[in-house]
Specification:
330 residues; alpha/beta; 17% strand; 12 helices; nine-stranded mixed sheet; single chain; 2 domains; Spore Coat Polysaccharide Biosynthesis Protein SpsA, Chain A
């Protein structure tokens, strides 16, 4: 079976460049790149080289790569600095200690200078046309705040495991309709969380306050983004989410709620952690802040409650395990 990595390497070898983006559109001004890509990483020597190469192979060249290492203990920094020495668009920073994944994601965003922003993971892959096609969508439609291509899940060797579970576009014309649409997506499948790896308007992420330094903060951010504009999924498959034994998403069942809280933010010292209650609260706050009539907010709130009601088992588990976990750590 042909793997995604082999397909990408064939495109690289062909040397074809179908880019239609001119040098004038590649930068916001004479200094800032149009697109900032943020790579937060910790002990990613296994796949980080492939991830950076995906960016170097993009048909769109007006980007910068901001890498922030969370105090890795392997060769991650050496690999990243090797790329930075060969390409001035790549900047590498290192935290003095491991501050947690959400903190690090915010760090790469804080250093971004582009009009558009994209987070990338050290173990994911994306096609050479990813940035170019997303930029074209955002440049031609001001109502869009986030663009993301069709995706599939691959294993550690790049072999396709499965496609996405459902269409991920959120194209409603009002805040209320988009909020309802996103909640419906969230109730059907967790694939919607990968929208966070699409191309987003930087000012929108900044207005949303980026990530909230708690477990599930990417879900809250996507809800805030959807309330500010439309999210479009390009029909072409160009994003490949890698699932492997060391992936944090594959280890969630092996950790406690407190461990997951500190994984998001190392200085989170709360004894009692209720992540699903926190998620519900943050979504309710978002709805309350919508500048719409009360009836519209109530319809959106009903969609939020319906989504979280479908996850009732997690609330039950949380109500039991979180107090027990808190008592054990006293």
């Amino acid at each position: 079976m042909s793997s995604v990595t082999s397909v990408l390497s064939k495109r690289e070898m062909s040397g074809s460049d179908t880019s239609t983006v001119t040098p004038m559109t590649a930068r916001v001004d004479g200094k800032s790149p149009l697109v900032s890509v943020g790579l937060p990483v910790y002990n990613g020597e296994n796949f980080v080289r492939e991830a950076i190469q995906c960016l170097l192979d993009q048909t769109f060249s007006g980007w910068e790569l901001v890498i922030c290492d969370n105090c890795s203990t392997d060769d991650t920094v050496a690999i990243c600095e090797e790329f930075a020495k060969c390409d001035r668009r790549i900047r590498v920073f290192r935290n003095p200690r491991n501050m947690g994944v959400s903190y690090n994601y915010n760090e790469v965003f804080r250093r971004a200078r582009g009009k558009y922003f994209k987070w990338m993971s050290h173990d994911d892959l994306f096609a050479p046309e990813f940035i170019e096609e997303c930029v074209q969508e955002l440049e031609t439609d001001d109502s869009l705040v986030l663009v993301f291509p069709k995706m599939c899940h691959v294993d550690g060797h790049g072999h396709v495991i499965r496609g996405q579970a459902s269409e991920l576009s959120v194209m409603g014309m009002t805040q209320e309709s988009r909020g309802i649409q996103l909640m419906a997506l969230a109730a059907r499948s967790m694939d919607f969380i990968w929208l966070a790896y699409g191309l987003i308007r930087t000012d929108v992420v900044r207005e949303c306050g980026a990530l909230g330094l708690h477990a599930g903060d990417d879900q809250v951010l996507l809800f805030k983004v959807a309330l500010r504009g439309r999210i479009k999924q390009i029909e072409r498959e160009m994003f490949y989410r890698r699932e492997h034994a060391e992936a944090s998403t594959c280890k969630r069942g092996e950790s406690t709620v407190r461990q997951r809280a500190k994984f998001a933010y190392a200085d989170d010292n709360r004894r009692l952690v209720l992540p699903w209650c926190r998620l519900l609260k943050e979504h309710v706050i978002c709805v309350w802040n919508i500048r719409r009539p009360l009836t519209s907010r109530m319809r959106c709130l009903r969609a939020v409650l319906r989504r979280f009601l479908a996850a009732w088992k997690f609330f039950v588990e949380e109500a039991f395990h979180s107090p027990v976990d808190a008592l054990r750590t006293r």
